[in-house]
Design goal:
The chain is of the alpha+beta class. 24% of the residues lie in helices and 34% in strands. It has eight helices and 21 strands. The chain has a six-stranded mixed sheet with strand order 6-7-8-3-9-10, sandwiched between helices. A five-stranded antiparallel sheet has the order 13-12-11-14-21. The chain has a four-stranded antiparallel sheet with strand order 2-1-4-5, covered by helices on one side. Strand 9 and strand 10 (211-216) form a beta hairpin. The two termini are 38 Å apart. The relative contact order is 0.12.
């Protein structure tokens, strides 16, 4: 097994910079998810690790070896792509064995590896099937099996679930996590789906415009975003952000005033202009709120709602800012809601740099 180290990786296509001085260490046996919007550079970074793209500058290490000049086939990695890329005329067995056959691996060894991968993936009964006879999830398992039989040091996965329906994606997420534990090796996984990233990764690397915005655990990424981009990008719903001022401990956002000096809130003392961030689930119906200090209270009438089953997400204006909050499913459309916010849930960002202040 192996760790992967990226040192000052830059990738340009012509005058356009796709990866901008990226440095990252991925530990041996770690499951790291690269996440970001389309065009942020995450797939290019994965392809650069694989050797399918050459970095303009910087160094890539797999284990203790610099692999910049090493061909993809010699990097001891296996890659799973968005498309299954299965040979339609070959059986599941032959699809999984194809790479080993090309390498002239002994037939007994091919059989051992394919049967082992089939057992791990629950494909033992499908080895004689053709791809057209399989479901989307089964085809993706075959693509995973083709990677497993290589017994690589590092698995690279480029949005492998994006072609599946929503229910199957949820099931396959857990299957890939279980696979990681069984194989006990290094996984680097690319997705644009924030929920996928938060549920799968030991560590998440958030990319934007070719730069790493934050590399941390899912919990820290969600609860302690390093800047407003991470705050609004990560999560099923973006964090609510409000322009605000703090003067002598008095916070003012959207003409809602809070005396922070009378609470144990860790707020910036020497910055006047800030951005206040509040997660959707932290703006609650007053009847469900409890806090020993000053609750932030206000009333609003939502003008739009989304039903999520057990609860609803409602949209309304707080000053000039569209605000999202969660309310019980019983909420009646058009009714005024008395909202409360626990001040301990407030996040503060610098108004100019957009970087976190607490």
């Amino acid at each position: 097994m192996a760790k992967v180290v990226l040192k000052n990786i830059t990738k340009r296509f012509g005058k356009k910079t796709i990866l901008d001085d990226i440095s990252l260490e991925i530990k041996d046996k770690e499951f790291v998810v690269l996440v970001g919007a389309s065009g942020c550079g995450k797939s290019t970074l994965l392809r650069t690790i694989a050797g399918l793209e050459k970095p303009t500058s910087g160094e890539i290490y797999i284990g203790s070896k610099c692999v910049n000049g090493v061909l993809p086939k010699d990097r001891d990695i296996a890659m799973v792509f968005q498309s299954y890329a299965l040979y339609p005329h070959l059986s599941v067995y032959d699809n999984m064995a194809f790479g080993l056959t090309v390498r002239k691996t002994a037939k007994c060894e091919i059989k051992r590896r394919v049967n082992n991968a089939a057992e791990i993936l629950g494909l033992e009964d499908y080895l004689d099937y053709k791809p057209r006879e399989l479901s989307g999830g089964q085809r993706q398992r075959v693509a995973l099996g083709r990677a497993i039989v290589r017994e690589p040091k590092v698995f690279l996965m480029d949005e492998p679930l994006s072609n599946l329906d929503a229910k199957l994606r949820v099931a396959m997420r857990s299957e890939i996590k279980k696979l990681h534990k069984k194989l006990n090796t290094t996984f680097i996984y690319v997705t644009h789906d924030q929920t996928e990233a938060l549920t799968m990764g030991d560590r998440i690397v958030v990319l934007d415009k070719g730069k790493i915005q934050q590399a941390d655990s899912a919990q820290n990424i969600y609860n302690h975003p390093k800047n407003t981009f991470v705050a609004t990008f990560m999560g099923a719903y973006p964090m609510n952000l409000f322009p605000a001022t703090i003067e002598d401990g008095l916070l003012n956002f959207a003409n809602i005033y809070v005396n922070l000096a009378t609470t144990p809130v860790d707020y910036p003392k020497n910055v006047k202009d800030v951005i206040v961030g509040i997660r959707v689930e932290d703006i609650v119906d007053k009847t469900n709120a409890s806090y020993p200090f000053n609750l932030i209270k206000f009333t609003a009438v939502p003008d739009f709602e989304e039903t999520l089953g057990a609860d609803k997400v409602v949209y309304f204006k707080t000053g000039d800012v569209e605000t999202l909050a969660k309310v019980p499913a019983e909420y009646a459309r058009g009714s005024a809601i008395e909202f409360s916010i626990n001040p301990m849930k407030l996040k503060f960002f610098d108004a100019k740099t957009k970087e976190a202040l607490n």
